[in-house]
Amino acid sequence: MARPKLLPDNFTLCLVGTVILASLLPVHGQAAVGFNWVTNVAVGLLFFLHGAKLSREAIIAGATHWRLHVVVLLSTFALFPLLGLALKPLLSPLVTPALYAGVLFLCTLPSTVQSSIAFTSIAKGNVPAAVCSASASSLLGIFITPALVSMVVTSQAAGGGASPWHTVGNIVLQLLVPFVAGQLLRPLIGKWIERNRGVLKFVDQGSILLVVYGAFSEAVNEGLWHQIPLSALGGLLVVNVVLLALALAVTIFVSKRLGFNRADQITIIFCGSKKSLAAGVPMAKVIFASHAVGAVVLPLMLFHQIQLMVCAALAQRWGARDISSEHLAASRERPAAAVARR
């Protein structure tokens, strides 16, 4: 039986189920300490496998397109934070202060890797450049995101007065070191990972679910759902939709004005308008106080689903339009070729 179009994907359903489970059966006490240790190991394994998977050849192939990469990075790490701050007077009354802190945190995150590349491919964009831009964004985010958080997230949620350098050190230890180790071991295990992509997907999604369950357990124990009214959740939906719409509009306008070809425009739009759930949830766990992580990642979880739905629709539409154009061009060439043969 065909899957209903309006039904979210399995991972989104798992995320919702995890939040419900944490709300009804939150982990606490010594069990929470052990669960936190398991989560740290899973996140480290996730970044290790991503490091082993990342193709250096693909990165080199796209690395020379520096103008495109600059536009993507500026959109990711400058446009989004500026939008978050500029919209705060208008949109923050729709949500709670903790939720808008999560929106600002979302604005500081790097771009996604897998979905940005996948949507670029579907829409007939510049895939090698997308691989390079998305990967560079993910790596630079390890250093840039904590610094941006210290500047734009003016909230008591930010973890206990720790300095940005201390936060960067924690992120480097927990995320970058495993990633570099995976890159170094890629010659030995890279082919195995390519043959077993399901393992990476399982670790990827499983580690996120573990972090979400632990974060929401801690937040529920601190009274999260008593602090967030239902109206604020509706307001959060509006905030995320406005943020994504503006990011898409700006990247479409700028990429055209700067004279990029169609394939490069598609790459800029998809890499420059998306935010990484896979990187954001572990970073939130390191950057923010444990009791605040649940409220901080909630905007990111919602934005993640909205961006997937919107970008999937755009990618399919643009990809279908390119295929139609190719068929039209081919149909015009055939009569011309027949006339030439005569």
Structural summary, described in words:
The chain has about 350 residues and is mostly helical. The chain has one domain (about 15-325): Na+/H+ antiporter like fold (Up-down Bundle), CATH 1.20.1530. Helices cover about 80% and strands about 0% of the residues. The chain has 16 helices and no strands. It has helices spanning about 10-25, 30-55, 55-65, 65-85, 90, 95-105, 115-120, 125-150, 165-185, 185-195, 195-220, 225, 230-255, 260-270, 275-285, 295-340. Helix 2 crosses helix 10, helix 3 crosses helix 8 and helix 15 runs antiparallel to helix 16 (about 295-340).
The counted number of beta strands is: 0
Percent strand equals under 5%
| Ends apart, CA distance between termini | 52 Å
Low-pLDDT runs of 5+ residues are none
* CATH architectural grouping: Up-down Bundle
On the 0-100 scale, what is the average pLDDT? Answer: 80
- The name CATH uses for the topology is Na+/H+ antiporter like fold
If you compute it from the alpha carbons, what radius of gyration comes out, rounded to the nearest whole angstrom?
21 Å
Put simply, the count of helices is 16
The helix/strand order is: HHHHHHHHHHHHHHHH
Keywords: Membrane, Transmembrane, Transmembrane helix
InterPro entries: Na+/solute_symporter_sf (IPR038770), Put_Na-Bile_cotransptr (IPR016833)
Organism: Paraburkholderia ginsengiterrae
Protein name: Bile acid:sodium symporter
